[in-house]
Every structure is written in structure tokens, then in C-alpha cells.
Amino acid sequence: MTMNHYGAQTQEHWRKHRAAEYAQIEDPATFFTAKGKEIAAEIERRTNEAEQQQQAGQSTDFMANLASLNNVSTTVRDEVMREMAFTEPGSPI
Predict the structure, then answer these.
(1) Is 22 within 8 Å of 14 (Cβ atoms)?
(2) 58 has pLDDT over 70
């Protein structure tokens, strides 16, 4: 099983900012590989929801629609990473 970039970013954050908790993880590779998959699934779920909601009010301007979808994707990714990866020490795992 290979760790995705969300897992790698989370692991790096924990190594720097949640060092005491990181040190207690028995198998960091397995933990952060699973965490990365969980994050990716949540990003996909929320992005799909947001895109479906946005399609209802879509314009006929392709570039405007593309920019809007890119904005949704970036916003969702940033929100999920803040909630699930870039957490403070003592936050729930």
C-alpha cells in the first residue's frame, strides 16, 4: 500500500507540530496511508456534493464554469486538510 500526498502532508505536519502524538503511533506508514485515503475520500465526497449544487446555477460560459469548479475543488481540499490533517496537538485523531 502506497501513501498518497494527503497522507504524506499529514505525516509531515504531525512530525513537526504534533511530535509527542506522532511518537506514540506504532506504525506511522500504515497510519498515515490510511489517513491519506480517508482524506482523499472526504475531499471527493464533498467536491461531488458542491459540484452538484453548483451545476443547478451554471452559466453557459465554459471558462466561468471551469473557474468556478476549480475554486470549489481548491476550497474543499483546503477545508478538509484543515479539519483532518493540519490539526493542533491534542485534537482528536
Answers:
(1) yes
(2) no
